[in-house]
Hints:
This protein is an alpha+beta fold.
Amino acid sequence: MHIRTILNLSIIGSAIGLSLPESSSTRRETLNEAAHNARVLIKEVKTGTMASVYPDTSDLAGRPFAMMEYHAPCYSNGSLALILMPISRSTQNIFQDPGHHIAYTVNMPTEGVRSPMSRGRVALMGNVTTLRDISSEEQTRLSKCYTKHHPDAQYWLPGTPDSPHFSLWARLDIDSIYYVGGFGDTHYIGSIPVDLYAKSEKKVQKGYESASTDNEEEGTLREVWEDDLDMDLNQIVF
Ligand SMILES: *[C@@H]1O[C@H](CO)[C@@H](O)[C@H](O)[C@H]1NC(C)=O
Ligand SMILES: *[C@@H]1O[C@H](CO)[C@@H](O)[C@H](O)[C@H]1NC(C)=O
């Protein structure tokens, strides 16, 4: 079977409602669509992988650590609500990093997909702020939003009596985004400006022009990357 036919079949079979080009064989996912698709991903997919860095005091100082975590899309600008437990390695790494930086990646489900590499994924990079002094209204809002996405988390919400572990509300604010929509011939691959992501919750934005001056360089990098990808694709035996 021709590679493009296989790709189209896998796109038709997409389990979640991402905005894709109507005719994916003639048009590629745009940056504006990619920004909205990233917002759909963080809403539809409940878990992600959190990457942090071991602190200087550790035997593994400076080395990356990544593990599955929960997030909840409780902010209209795409910041993520998190529950941090000091018992977790990720939380310890965050607290000991002066910038409180993490990367958090979310990917489309891959079950039953012929080539999981054809599925969308996004890496959200930013810093984590613990929310110690929020109002009880805001705590209630976060609890409702978080348990809507993670009913099981009711047992360890911050402040829950008899919770097995001490926990804190926190928020990931995003300052850099890297998105891979799927294979590069039909999908956007590259960075997404945070301001575009922030306003793409409800729909695909029209006429957005990136203020970034790196566009030309990014374009070239993208072509190089896609050339590599095309070569690799031809090696894949389905
Ligand atoms: C999103 O909202 C949070 C909370 O108000 C704020 O701290 C963050 O800077 C905002 N991010 C963007 C990209 O606007
Ligand atoms: C996160 O980054 C912002 C912008 O760089 C900074 O103002 C803020 O203090 C940082 N927050 C933490 C908890 O480090």
